């Protein structure tokens, strides 16, 4: 751990040692092009880090809980450095609400962001829970910084890409990471007061800082982002961080007096890792005394790092949902509802579902869905259909969209299909609406024409549950000899009671999959010939759902499709949504083998406030209450379909599953090639038998 150097002050390979100060390790460095955020900078190491980086010319944003103390730091810095650029934004990293507010305020300033120093922390405090119901040291030292980093990461990546200056993330860890609980991170007993130990809990949180940096570094490298992530041990520094354990600290200082540093020395490693040019491209490392050191075996455990990342995302989703419920059902009680002992029955129901799903949370992209954090595409759950298609000229495209409205009792333009049609028309596309209710569809058409008089919109009758209707729709379209660039298979029914279609097929599978399978096959030659003639890639988009992960055992019940005795409306819906993904995947494979200039992908639009779940009102009411943090409005719900249908960045992308306008990982069933092929064969039989 570098204790010999720490005790002697002997310099390491970097040319610095434990006796070096923050000013010394940054001497001669011009940071005037850098914007730096430092949390916990109202005293101690954070304040000195802010001072030295301001001295080197950086624009410093101080994130502090105590605004009065932070302003004193700011004034002290300006007394010594009149030209210092310093701003203050309040943040309590133990509060996820406060972290979000901080990020929103910073992003609203439209500043670049080059360096993020996650410096804030608490140490050896007695057992208590944060306002979000998480053990306080873990909440403050890790979880708050995990969220903050995610909220600011896209800004850092875009800044680095635009300026060519490497972004750097520095997590303040500690040598105390070698003394966590025996298992490292107590995933199953995070909030267990009975086994709580303030020293081990602190070590756990400091271990988490290193694991967070390492996993983040791995992800950034895989993505090719010009941003690094490292962790640092500042040394044993004379601050008031150990105020919760004065006797222990007094003994520790006596025994280890030779190792203790001054505050300028304690800030050195953070400053060195944040701005020193010799560390360009260095990522996923642990530093002490301004030199790379080897952390504990646990800190180098890549599997543990991945597990912590997944756990942090899952925990954040649960906390977000629980907080929403607490405000709704317990507005007079500020006390947290500690997970997993959730008192609210709806929250308990959701918690059970989410814990059962396990790492599927990450696969379904729920962390981004709950936070609105943009993904690699630059878009996220809060992006709207207009935003993701901004600047795109679709005037040379003809688009068919099925299922325009949401079966509401009044004429409306509030469905995903309607918003998709409107946005496509705004971008200049010739839109063909395929809808069961012509009166409602024409109402949507008129609404579009009112706002976009130049819109090219047509309506044609289509009942997806009827193969006769599907064939008639295709015949009418093909007889007009129009081109066809994009097919969006959007129509669907959800959670309906058992019934058979007019073709004798269970209604949800008939409507959501078989009808679209037939329609796609009938129009596919037109799409291929259009793409060949125009040189414009054709795109097929199947509207699936995250519900595809809650299907029958085995995925598709090939032998019991129409078995009423074992029918479950939720499982049947999940089966049909899984079929949408498998259909897109198998179609993509066949198109690629054929060399056709047409792609096929599936999308999860998100949880949308529509009337689609009218057949199961009680269940949907509970679902909405328990997952309110995840629900989108209609323009947000239509975004992913529009993105996949039009965005130029997806040229050649096929056989993928998208959520929040980013590629996501589906379930094992959703990636099962044999299952996809078997479904294709069955579907061909079902459409040929009518």
TrEMBL record:
Taxonomy, superkingdom: Eukaryota
Coiled coil: none
Pfam families attached to this UniProt entry: adh_short
Signal peptide range: none
Protein name, entry field: Short-chain dehydrogenase TIC 32, chloroplastic
């Amino acid at each position: 751990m570098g204790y010999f150097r720490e005790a002697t002050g002997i310099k390491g390979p970097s040319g610095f040692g434990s006796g070096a100060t923050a000013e010394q390790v940054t001497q001669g460095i011009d940071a005037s092009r850098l914007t730096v955020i430092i949390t916990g900078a109202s005293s101690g190491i954070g304040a000195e880090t802010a001072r030295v980086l301001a001295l080197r010319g950086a624009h410093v944003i101080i994130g502090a809980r105590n605004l009065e103390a932070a302003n004193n730091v700011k004034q002290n810095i300006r007394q010594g450095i009149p030209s210092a650029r310093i701003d203050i934004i309040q943040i309590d990293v133990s509060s996820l609400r406060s972290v979000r507010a901080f990020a929103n305020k910073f992003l609203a300033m439209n500043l670049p962001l080059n360096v993020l120093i996650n410096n804030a922390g608490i140490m050896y405090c007695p057992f208590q829970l944060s306002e979000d119901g998480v053990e306080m040291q873990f909440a403050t030292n890790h979880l708050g910084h995990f969220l903050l980093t995610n909220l600011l990461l896209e800004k850092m990546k875009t800044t680095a890409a635009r300026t060519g200056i490497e972004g750097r993330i520095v997590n303040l860890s500690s040598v105390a990471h070698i003394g966590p609980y025996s298992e490292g991170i107590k995933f199953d007993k995070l909030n267990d007061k009975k086994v709580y130990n303030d020293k081990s809990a602190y070590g756990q949180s400091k271990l988490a800082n290193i694991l967070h940096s390492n996993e983040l570094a791995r992800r950034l490298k895989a993505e090719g982002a010009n941003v690094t992530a490292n962790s640092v041990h500042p040394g044993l520094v004379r601050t008031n961080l150990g105020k919760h354990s004065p006797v222990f600290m007094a003994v520790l200082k006596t025994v280890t007096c030779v190792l203790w540093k001054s505050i300028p020395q304690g800030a050195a490693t953070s400053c060195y890792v944040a701005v020193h040019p010799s560390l360009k491209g260095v990522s996923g490392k642990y530093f002490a005394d301004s030199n790379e050191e080897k952390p504990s075996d646990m800190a180098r455990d890549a599997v543990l790092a991945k597990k912590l990342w997944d756990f942090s995302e899952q925990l954040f989703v649960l906390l977000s949902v629980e907080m929403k419920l607490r405000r709704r059902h317990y507005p007079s009680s500020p006390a947290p509802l500690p997970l997993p002992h959730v008192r609210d029955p709806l929250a308990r129901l959701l918690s059970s579902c989410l814990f059962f799903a396990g790492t599927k949370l990450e696969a379904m992209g729920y962390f981004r869905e709950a936070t609105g954090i943009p993904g690699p595409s630059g878009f996220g759950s809060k992006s709207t259909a207009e935003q993701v298609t901004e600047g795109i000229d679709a005037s040379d495209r003809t688009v068919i969209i099925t299922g325009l409205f949401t079966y509401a009792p009044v004429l409306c333009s509030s469905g995903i299909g309607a918003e998709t049609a409107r946005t496509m028309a705004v971008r200049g596309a010739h839109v063909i609406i395929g809808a069961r209710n012509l009166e409602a569809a024409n109402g949507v058409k008129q609404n579009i024409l009112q706002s976009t008089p130049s819109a090219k919109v047509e309506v044609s009758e289509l009942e997806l549950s009827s193969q006769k209707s599907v064939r008639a729709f295709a015949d009418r379209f093909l007889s007009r000899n129009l081109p066809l660039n994009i097919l969006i298979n959007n129509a669907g029914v959800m959670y309906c009671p058992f019934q058979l279609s007019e073709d004798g097929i269970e209604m949800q599978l008939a409507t959501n999959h078989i009808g679209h399978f037939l329609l796609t096959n009938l129009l596919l030659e037109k799409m291929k010939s259009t793409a060949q003639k125009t040189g414009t890639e054709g795109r097929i988009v199947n509207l699936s759902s995250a519900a595809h992960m809650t299907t029958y055992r085995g995925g598709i019940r090939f032998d019991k499709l129409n078995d009423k005795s074992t029918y479950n409306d939720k499982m049947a819906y999940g089966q049909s949504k899984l079929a949408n993904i498998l259909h897109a995947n198998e179609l993509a494979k066949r198109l690629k083998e054929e060399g056709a200039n047409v792609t096929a992908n599936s999308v999860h639009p998100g949880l949308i406030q529509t009337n689609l779940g009218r057949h199961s009102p009680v269940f949907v009411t509970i679902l909405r209450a328990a997952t309110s943090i995840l629900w989108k409005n209609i323009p947000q719900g239509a975004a992913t379909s529009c993105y996949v249908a039009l965005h130029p960045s997806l040229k050649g992308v096929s056989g993928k599953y998208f959520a929040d306008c980013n590629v996501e990982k589906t379930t094992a069933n959703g990636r099962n090639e044999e299952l996809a092929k078997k479904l294709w064969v069955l579907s061909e039989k079902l459409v040929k038998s009518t």
